[in-house]
Amino acid sequence: MRVIIVLNSAMMRSILKEIFTDAHDEVLLLTANWRDALKIANEKKAELIIFGDNTIKVDDDYFFMELAKVESKPLVCFTGKFNEKEVAELTKRNYGKVIEYPDIDTINDDEYRKSILRSIKAPPDSRILQTELKTKYQSVIGANKTSQSDCIEHIVIGSSTGGPKALKIILDNLPSDFPVPISIVQHLEDGHEEGLAKYLNRESKLSVRLAVTNDKPNPGEVIIAVQGKHLVIKNKVFYYEDGEKVNFQKPSIDRLFKTASSTYKKNLVGILLTGMGQDGALGCVDILHNGGYTIVQDKETSTVFGMPKVAIESGGASIVLPIDKIAEYLVNLVKMRNNYGK
């Protein structure tokens, strides 16, 4: 097994190298710099990355975006009682598993070393939701340099049961100068969409309204699909179309996501929120196949963990986040891709 070890402690790096070497594994790199680690991981096709929860800053979203581009699947995070728990939780939720730092007082015991190795190499707990990085997200995001072709041009959001509350949390935390238009499909009873648009417009810093045929939403404007028709986009113009229900829904999240993906390709971000069923899951997969990026709501904050669960299991999630972290993550993603706020 080809291993990279990313820890602040030089002594712990050395000890782990010795443990892996004794087990006939190849240690590709010992470092405290995660940027170097991810670069080497791709170049040398690392099979395991170990890092500490104090190796990165808890709010370093760029780390997780870059991590999503690494094809190495197993990832282990060492955590201590007083270290960055949030990093450990995000890692456990999305990229692998979390184990406690080895006990330095017992580290020279052969049986203890074997137990450390078993813990690291054991498959992650099947109860832990994780993307396993199987989406192989390949969009180019630069920390200091972005090209116009990499800019995010549109954001699509799909939600169902529990969606109005989730949408309010996201929109309420986006700044008034947010530069990217947003389109939403929310499953509702017929006739309730106008009330939702007025409610979100009142609660949000952004302008929120119902989508109309031949619509071209402005930067930072939010449009919501009416019920009973599919909202689709072609050549960056929104239309309504009739037809059969998709996933028992009309409007269908999948229809919006798939047509938006065909139009915007890598310049699209899809967000799938709480809801029953599977609408939007294949749309997320489609977005990733076209080079876009997807954010899926986690189980803990979902009212109904149906649509998000299917999206994750289908390999349609670039990252899984709690609802109260999505807006902040989205703003940081747009900052990096669009040079927004610089």
Summed over residues and divided by their number, the pLDDT gives a mean of 82
Structural class: alpha/beta
Please estimate the helix content.
Answer: 25-40%
Q: What is the overall shape?
A: elongated
How large, in whole angstroms, is the Cα Rg? 22 Å
Low-confidence stretches: 125-147
Give the biggest beta sheet: 7 strands, parallel
**Number of E-type strands:** 14
Topology:
Blueprint (H helix, E strand, L loop, with lengths): L1 E5 L3 H13 L3 E6 L2 H10 L4 E5 L8 H7 L7 E5 L5 H10 L2 E4 L9 H12 L32 E6 L3 H10 L9 E5 L6 H11 L3 E4 L10 E4 L5 E5 L2 E5 L11 H12 L3 E5 L8 H9 L3 E5 L9 H7 L5 E3 L1 H16 L4
Parallel strand pairs: 1-2, 1-3, 3-4, 4-5, 6-7, 6-12, 7-9, 8-9, 12-13, 13-14
Antiparallel strand pairs: 10-11
Describe this structure in words.
The protein is α/β, with parallel strands linked by helices and 342 residues long. The protein folds into 2 domains: 2-121, Rossmann fold (3-Layer(aba) Sandwich); 148-338, Rossmann fold, CATH 3.40.50. Helix content is 34%, strand content 20%. It is built from 11 helices and 14 strands. The chain has helices at residues 10-22, 34-43, 61-67, 85-94, 110-121, 163-172, 193-203, 253-264, 281-289, 307-313, 323-338, and strands at residues 2-6, 26-31, 48-52, 75-79, 97-100, 154-159, 182-186, 207-210, 221-224, 230-234, 237-241, 268-272, 293-297, 319-321. A 7-stranded parallel β-sheet has the order 8-9-7-6-12-13-14, with helices on both faces. It has a 5-stranded parallel β-sheet with strand order 2-1-3-4-5, sandwiched between helices. Helix 3 (61-67) links the parallel strand 3 (48-52) and strand 4 (75-79). The longest helix has 16 residues, at 323-338. The radius of gyration is 22 Å and the shape is elongated. Residues 125-147 have low confidence and may be disordered.
